[in-house]
């Protein structure tokens, strides 16, 4: 016999202790000061920008953002690799365990959704007649529905991209009609949600838990957390993953041709070549760059003023998480075959980091020029490049002190 309540309690206490231990290294005094100043300046600029707005498609943009955070509703199970062997015969006794995991995940997701709604609250009070309390209650109900569907897909019937798209589309429609007070359409959407939930539950009862899929998802979550911590301190549990990126193969072929030619730039800079391939293929560096750049571009395009400070926030978040790229291959025995010093590796990392920052700065500057004109474009370009240069100086200082 196994007590699911006690097992979850032990796993949860160990998980919280690990997060708190690494959190002390991440949220030091300097980072907290920067976050405090950044949030304060961003809040002032954001409030002034909202006050100056005359018209804004709030219902459309807010429905997409709220739906995005409501659709992603995976359950943190805190499972370990050995559970697929030792807990497999005790699957029926683990219902209290997974029930508590669902409750914990629900409140964590709800907390994130609440923060997002607070960020949109000034816009909501100005451009929507719907009560904020009604939106919060609807968010809670929609989060519960998404978590129920997501859990059955992850744990039993398997994931499907079409199902994810359908849930996201229904979430968008639900929030949009809620913000514009079209309750008749909301009733139809709720009826469809009930039908989908009953269908998913009926299919889920026919199969058992997909342990490999649950373990893979939990492993991915923990590795994402470890990659974030890895930018501040060494993590012994870090496991590197490599993705093929088939649609970027032409970039690698171009680099390979340059690499095979003697006396070319990349031939003389093997570490640069290594860091470029690592950025595109390893972990989630490229995906992180794309997501933060896309989010920053959307807000730069929509905000009337203060776009350069939001660009600074996105560039800082990108640069901080890309710092772990420098030590990604540290300790690998094949690196000792390179007849190069650590100084060359450091210079190559600086080149790659500055190139990434320059590309992000150009994207933000182009969006700022399209939406706001020449001066915001130049200011955005200068601030983003200054952020990456400051980050490079920080890396240089840390290397000299080491």
What are the defining features of this structure?
402 residues, mainly alpha, 2 domains, 16 helices, 0% strand
Blueprint (SSEs and pairs):
Blueprint: H1 4-26, H2 29-52, H3 58-71, H4 83-86, H5 95-127, H6 132-157, H7 161-179, H8 183-204, H9 211-230, H10 249-260, H11 265-268, H12 270-281, H13 285-302, H14 307-322, H15 342-372, H16 374-401
Helix pairs in contact: 1-5, 3-5, 3-7, 5-6, 6-7, 6-8, 7-8, 12-15, 13-14, 13-15, 14-15, 14-16, 15-16
Description:
This protein has 402 residues and is mainly α. The protein folds into two domains: 4-227, no CATH class; 243-328 and 337-401, no CATH class. It has helices at residues 4-26, 29-52, 58-71, 83-86, 95-127, 132-157, 161-179, 183-204, 211-230, 249-260, 265-268, 270-281, 285-302, 307-322, 342-372, 374-401. The radius of gyration is 24 Å and the shape is globular. The N and C termini lie far apart (52 Å). The model is unreliable at 259-267 (pLDDT under 50).
Multimerization state:
single chain
* Separate helix tally: 16
The count of domains is 2
Overall mean confidence score, pLDDT? 81
Keywords: Membrane, Transmembrane, Transmembrane helix
Pfam family, one: EcsB
Transmembrane segments: 30-47, 53-71, 103-125, 131-149, 161-177, 183-200, 285-303, 309-328, 349-371, 377-395
InterPro entries: EcsB_ABC
Short description:
The chain crosses the membrane at residues 30-47, 53-71, 103-125, 131-149, 161-177, 183-200, 285-303, 309-328, 349-371, 377-395. With 402 residues, the protein is mostly helical.
């Amino acid at each position: 016999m196994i007590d699911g309540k006690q097992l979850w309690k032990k796993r949860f206490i160990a998980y919280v202790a690990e997060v708190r231990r690494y959190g002390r290294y991440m949220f030091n005094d300097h980072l907290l000061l920067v976050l405090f100043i950044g949030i304060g300046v961003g809040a002032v600029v954001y409030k002034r920008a909202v006050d100056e707005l005359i018209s804004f498609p709030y219902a459309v943009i807010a429905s997409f953002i709220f739906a995005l955070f409501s659709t992603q509703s995976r359950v943190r199970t805190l499972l370990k690799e050995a559970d697929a062997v030792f807990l497999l015969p005790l699957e029926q006794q683990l219902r209290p365990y997974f029930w508590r995991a669902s409750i914990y995940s629900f409140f964590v997701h709800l907390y994130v959704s609440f923060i997002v709604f607070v960020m949109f609250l000034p816009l909501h009070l100005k451009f929507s007649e719907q009560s904020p309390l009604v939106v919060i209650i609807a968010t809670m109900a929609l989060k519960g529905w998404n978590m129920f569907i997501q859990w059955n897909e992850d744990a039993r019937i398997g994931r499907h991209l079409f199902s994810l798209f359908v849930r996201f589309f229904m979430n968008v429609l639900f929030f949009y009609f809620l913000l514009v007070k079209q309750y008749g359409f909301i009733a139809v959407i709720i009826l469809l949600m009930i039908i989908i939930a009953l269908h998913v539950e009926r299919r889920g009862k026919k199969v058992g838990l997909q342990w490999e899929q649950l373990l893979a998802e939990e492993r991915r979550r923990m590795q994402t957390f470890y990659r974030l911590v890895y930018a501040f301190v060494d993590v012994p549990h870090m496991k590197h993953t490599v993705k093929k990126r088939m649609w970027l193969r032409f970039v690698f072929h171009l680099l390979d041709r340059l690499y095979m030619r003697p006396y070319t730039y990349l031939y003389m800079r093997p570490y640069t070549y290594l860091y470029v391939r690592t950025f595109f293929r390893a972990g989630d560096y490229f995906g992180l760059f794309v997501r933060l750049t896309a989010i920053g571009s959307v807000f730069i395009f929509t905000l009337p003023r203060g776009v350069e400070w939001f660009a600074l926030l996105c560039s800082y978040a990108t640069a901080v998480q890309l710092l772990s790229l420098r030590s990604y291959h540290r300790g690998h025995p094949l690196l000792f075959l390179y007849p190069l010093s650590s100084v060359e590796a450091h210079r190559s990392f600086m080149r790659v980091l500055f190139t990434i920052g320059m590309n992000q700065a150009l994207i933000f500057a182009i969006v700022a020029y399209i939406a706001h004109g020449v001066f915001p474009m130049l200011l955005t370009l200068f601030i983003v490049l200054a952020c990456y240069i400051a980050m490079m100086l920080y890396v240089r200082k840390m290397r000299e002190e080491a």
